[in-house]
Amino acid sequence: MMTANERRDSEDLARIFRNKISSKDEAVMGFNIGANCGESAGQTIWHAHIHLIPRRDGDTPNPRGGVRGVIPGRMGYGQ
């Protein structure tokens, strides 16, 4: 669990990196942000970490499905 201050700081940090990435790569049109919280949710690293994944139009055939959909072949659970 993160404290309220840690959550706010992580949102600020994600925003900073989003802006930095967007300014360096005009092809980035969106982002996925993900975190696994708890063993049942697939967390295997036992500290807070957040994935900020830059997305480009056409980078995957069907971007639906969120963070798992970013990696072809990893959409289904249990893989």
Describe the structure.
This protein has one helix spanning 4-24; strands at 28-34, 51-56. By secondary structure, it is α+β, with helices and mostly antiparallel strands. It has one domain. A two-stranded antiparallel sheet has the order 1-2. The mean pLDDT is 84. It contains 1 helix and 2 strands, in the order αββ. The chain is flat, with a radius of gyration of 14 Å. Helices cover 27% and strands 16% of the residues.
What's the overall average pLDDT, rounded? 84
Q: Which descriptor suits the 3D outline?
A: flat
Q: What is the number of independent domains?
A: 1
Distance between the termini: 26 Å
Number of helices: 1
Q: What's the total number of strands?
A: 2
Structural class computed from helices and strand pairing: alpha+beta
Main beta sheet: strand number and arrangement? 2 strands, antiparallel
Q: Radius of gyration, rounded?
A: 14 Å
Series of H and E elements: HEE
Strand adjacency order, main sheet = 1-2
Strand content: 15-25%
Summarize the amount of helix as a percent range.
25-40%
Uncertain runs are none
